[in-house]
Predict the structure.
Amino acid sequence: MIDSDTTATEEDTIFMQQALNEALSDDCVPVQTAFCVGCVLVARIPGMKPVTLATGYSRELPGNTHAEANALTKAHNLSNLHLAALLPLVSPTPSITDLLRCTDVYTTLEPCSVRTSGLPACADALINAGIRRCIIGVGEPDDFVNCEGAQKLKDAGIDIVWLKGLEKQCLDTARRGRNTNE
């Protein structure tokens, strides 16, 4: 695992718990061939309280989608009116592209660096979105692939934080409904 350049805060733990709640949602149906993951995108604008832009969980949107990709898709689909409502004290209302540049991603499992389905990797999507920081609950086990998502993000200049204290809960949640030998 990559050492964190930043220390996690109590607020980070709260947002990670929200990501866990996404992964534990009744709608995040466990399957034998994929993990149950939750994600929360939090914009951090100087002088303001953090603002949740979007959440996501595994297979939420059609097409064998991952939590991070779903949260990004939902964020990109926010209307200017919705963004203005989220940020009533900011004028003019920033674009979602600008907001993502000051966004932290909270994900219960390390973002994937490769997809066996052929879909784009979540690490690439987060890099392309320009996010600034990724807080990870637990590294992806090698159940399906050898994941290098955190290293890929770090190589792209994104700050990586391995949140301590929820690793077992994040891994158990990811693997819920699956038979594993570990």
Notes: The beta strands are 38-43, 51-57, 103-107, 133-136, 159-162.
